[in-house]
Amino acid sequence: MKQAIRIINDGGVIAYPTESFFALGADATNARAVKKVFRLKGRNKKPIALIAGSLAQVEKFFFVSAVERRLMKRYWPGAVTILLQPKKDIAADALLGTTPSRPSSGHPSSMRRGQYRIGVRVPAHAGVRHLALSFGRPITATSANLSGKRPTKLRTVVERTFRGIVTVNGACGTARKPSTILSMDNGKINILRRGAVRV
After folding, report:
1. Among candidate residues 147, 113, 198, 120, the one with its CA nearest the CA of residue 41
2. Which among 92, 12, 4 is positioned nearest to 49, based on CA atoms?
């Protein structure tokens, strides 16, 4: 864990287990680090969501309405990703993976009324929450696989795919579906992707 945090802090990328699959983690406030994740995956123009260690950490880096806070208290920790407007510290341009004039709706990041919205969640996996809390900032949560390939629960597959990557010790959970993605639009819940949790 200490080595992983040091790598993220230095702008590197690690792999870590979640409640579903292994993910690639980088500092969400570091645009260069986020771009490394895109390059590792061979990914282009598809936004990347984030994980945080607690609701308090989310509120430090994102604007949260009273309605959104109620949703968080109901579904977190858990596999529900909520699109939120980030504060200036979050590397929104890099995470969006596209130009501001071409948002990618339906993915864990989009724009509305000229503002970015980035997907974030507090996961059920205690080790992941500890990682984000120990690091002190949200980290990327894209699956640890090449673009177009299946995600994996196997550490050996991750290390074979991404040679030399440091992988946090621990096992993935039993979930077989990604998180449910939603946003609040005009006071109503908008489901962008149906996943592990029914909302």
Report:
1. 147
2. 92
Q: Please answer whether residues 105 and 45 qualify as being in contact, where contact means their C-beta atoms are separated by less than 8 angstroms.
A: no
At 165-176, the pLDDT tens digits run: 999 999 999 988
Residue 98 has pLDDT above 90, yes or no: no
Type and span of the H or E element at 163: none
Residue of 40, 39, 47, 30 whose CA lies nearest to 139:
30
Q: What does the mean pLDDT of the chain come to?
A: 90
For helices 2-9 and 126-135, what crossing angle results, to 10°? 50
Q: If you search the block for the tokens 């629960």, which residue do you land on?
A: 153
pLDDT digits (tens, 9 = 90+) for 65-79: 999 999 999 999 999
Residue 116's pLDDT is: 81
Contact 61, 52 (CB under 8 A): yes
CA distance 104 to 108: 9
What tokens does 52 get? 């945080």
Tokens encoding 174: 């039993």
Grouping H, G, I as helix, E, B as strand and the rest as coil, residue 109 is: strand
Residues across the chain: 199
SS3 32: helix
